[in-house]
Amino acid sequence: MLVAGIDVGSLSSEAVILDGEKILSYSILATGANSRRAAERALEEALRAGNISREEIGYVVATGYGRINVPFAHRQVTEITCHARGAVYLVPDTRLVIDIGGQDSKVIKVGPGGVVEDFVMNDKCAAGTGRFLEVMARALETDLEGFSELASRARRAATISSMCTVFAESEVVSLIGQGAPREEIALGLCEAIAERVAAMVHRLGKPQPTVTMTGGVAKNRSVVQALSRRLGVEVVVPPEPQIVGALGAALIARSSLARGVV
């Protein structure tokens, strides 16, 4: 039978449907105010995309901050475990996973097979997360895609002294008022995010290849490039970094189904 993984995050929810080793379909949508409904919609969309019936799904694992609100899941697993499993499945040589989600950041040290060896997490503050970037993009009068494009055109980075979302937004508004180019401000924000995440990485020791980045912020090429420079190693981004947590959940669902775990 087929299996599914559901990742209910603060900003987006994803579903992945697996048939053995093959990803049959996936979905990505905004979580909104109702995480339970978001999980249902994510699975429905993935089923529709793969032309699959609900009855064909033999096991479901839920992850993410809203995992306890997925009543049709057989198991709930932490996103740290799921991102490690999903990253190693997509990039087998992965030894470090950097996941920047909607409202938190995680750095996960992994061993062979995606086993979690150690991790550090910032869930006390939204600095440098997807929510942070949304606020900064709005201050720069663009969207997230435009934010990345702005940063890629900058020749130098403006200095951003605060990573607090509230203070950083005020700083951005002030820089705009002073005539600083939006491109330089955008790049300065990317560099500030990279500096913060690099500090988390170094708490786990010197980064060893391969470093894989997951989560929606991994779609911002300027952040990825800034991280690569600061870490001194290439940061690899899977083709669709936003589904890695749901993929890991689906892989665990596959293992659980094979072992007969209820």
UniProtKB/TrEMBL annotation:
GO molecular function, one term: metal ion binding
ATPase BadF/BadG/BcrA/BcrD type domain mapped to chain residues: 5-253
SUPFAM superfamilies: Actin-like ATPase domain
Record keywords, A-Z: Iron, Iron-sulfur, Metal-binding
Entry-linked Pfam families: BcrAD_BadFG
Cofactor: [4Fe-4S] cluster
Entries under PANTHER family matching the protein: BIFUNCTIONAL PROTEIN [INCLUDES 2-HYDROXYACYL-COA DEHYDRATASE (N-TER) AND ITS ACTIVATOR DOMAIN (C_TERM), BIFUNCTIONAL PROTEIN [INCLUDES 2-HYDROXYACYL-COA DEHYDRATASE (N-TER) AND ITS ACTIVATOR DOMAIN (C_TERM)-RELATED
Protein name (Swiss-Prot/TrEMBL): 2-hydroxyglutaryl-CoA dehydratase
